[in-house]
Design brief:
The structure is a homodimer of 145-residue chains. The first copy, chain A, contains five helices and five strands, in the order αααββαββαβ. With 145 residues, chain A is of the alpha+beta class. Chain A has a four-stranded antiparallel sheet with strand order 3-4-2-5. The two termini of chain A are 15 Å apart. The interface between A and B is large, with 60 and 60 residues. β1 of chain A pairs antiparallel with β1 (47-54) of chain B, so a sheet runs across the interface. The structure holds a DNA duplex (17 and 17 nucleotides).
Amino acid sequence: MDAIDEEIIRCVLRNARSTYAEIGEAAGLSAPAAKRRLDRLVATGAIRGFTALIDTQALGWRTEAFVEVYCKGNPSPAELQRDLEGIQEVVEACTVSGAADAMLHMLARDIPHLEQAIQRVREAPVIDRTESVIVLSRLLNRPRL
Amino acid sequence: MDAIDEEIIRCVLRNARSTYAEIGEAAGLSAPAAKRRLDRLVATGAIRGFTALIDTQALGWRTEAFVEVYCKGNPSPAELQRDLEGIQEVVEACTVSGAADAMLHMLARDIPHLEQAIQRVREAPVIDRTESVIVLSRLLNRPRL
DNA sequence: CGTGAAACAAAAGCTCT
DNA sequence: AGAGCTTTTGTTTCACG
């Protein structure tokens, strides 16, 4: 993991569909060398995959919320993960410091759909109660790094 | 925006580096037809771009936080956006309902780096104070949809 | 939207350092 | 181990039906 790898990562972050020639040019390498580096970054797990940035508005998913989760007892992170991964509307979940046990980022079509999804979250055995904050407008959404 | 477009989106969400032949197979189309559809989805903005999923741990960015922002007066979303987009550590920002004015998702190398980045956030003229929650462990991180 | 041909990029080999 | 070069294979991109 050196400066060349970081250039390659910056390049595919900007455009995951870059050709190897383009990636190589960005990193100062030939196309085959760029492919070998990229393959290695995927193999070692530094790059977890390649995905598209979808305008969820265009797809009709217009309602977002951040949800603080308070648990019953002391569930392990793994238990929480198991209960949440079945709920498609939860796009991000982390255990956190502070009063709450976890923070969820949820995405739904509209308020009724969000309400119904939060309801499903609250039905999980380990979850006691939730506190939701509705997103009004999105200011920034950057690819990580 | 029909069922075929949705299949194409599902395919590039799973792997943004799919060939047009693969995308076409997933959507029941020939490769040139798949390319025309994908180009149209990018042109209309339904697909905002293609990016890589980076294991930020592997890159040494191991510290994440959610930061509630309280503003002075009533800044417009555009003003907030202007003040935040210069801070690379802010990966997501939204205005929200509830007591806070905005919610930030921040990513830093370590706690000192995070503290320094939050300090830069607090120096923005429109920002009064912040309340941070540190991420302990990441349970889920799904591509949207 | 599909087909076929030309231009182009990717994959796999080998060589060199 | 890692980079460059070259050939073969496969993909992209047209024009056309």
